[in-house]
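Example record used in the benchmark description.
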Amino acid sequence: MPPLLIRSASDLVTSHRAVCEGFLSQALSKTIRATPFVESAVKLHDVLVSVKDAASSADIREIQNELVAAAGFSDKARAHLSQEELRSALKNVLTQIAEKASRDWREEIVYRYLLTRGDSLGGTMRNVTGAIAGRQLADAILTALEEKHITPKVHAEGEKIQSVQWPGRMLLFDKKSELVAKSVDVILLTVSDPRKQSAELLLYAGNYIACGELKGGIDPAGADEHWKTANSALGRIRQKFKGKGPALFFVGAAIEAGMAEEIFSQIQDGRLIYAANLTVLEQVRDLARWIVNL
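Model output (structure tokens):
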């Protein structure tokens, strides 16, 4: 049975209003998460004001983490250096930054710190976007289960939902499947023995009921790329299960007209069983009811 709320490709297209609201939500979230970095930058500058030269600042433990970030040392690089090696390398880099600075060297170091942290924030926001999308779908699943008077077990780590389990079923988020040899955004498994863990359940093809790709990014510019990635992942699942695999579905926040046509075409020919636009609550709840009833 096709999705009740998807009668044409246009039903899947993300509205301009949803895009605007999505960007606003991301901007507010990024502003909140950027605040500690700005506060650290202010502290860094205040300490540097009392230092006579850049190399000497490497000896101040209070700001060493900020200086390491400003110097461009990654966490991996830092792990391979002793404390003395790191201090020596840090002095070298900070001296070069000060020599080449077109403005006050203290400001140069602060700007470089903010640049590094900004890049780190970008990576964090990508993870947050995925976690929020997972939580949106999980919330819809919980509502669908509540409608059936079922109380599930929910496992989460921080903001990220790991799994939702109810009698006979386990729903996993962003989990690597040994059968597919890749991570799958959403996997619904049958659970005949509640004592079995997800790792064991994932080994047997017969346990797979449904698999889906979930893309929470709202930027229309990245929509096609997200769909290409998801479509490849879904195709890989079809290939691994050789036509006898789980029901497949797609959920996305940014769905443009062209990709909507492709998604709807796959619904019509059976390659996809369900699809939903993450910005349309009714569609997400419809998808959740379908998952719960499988």
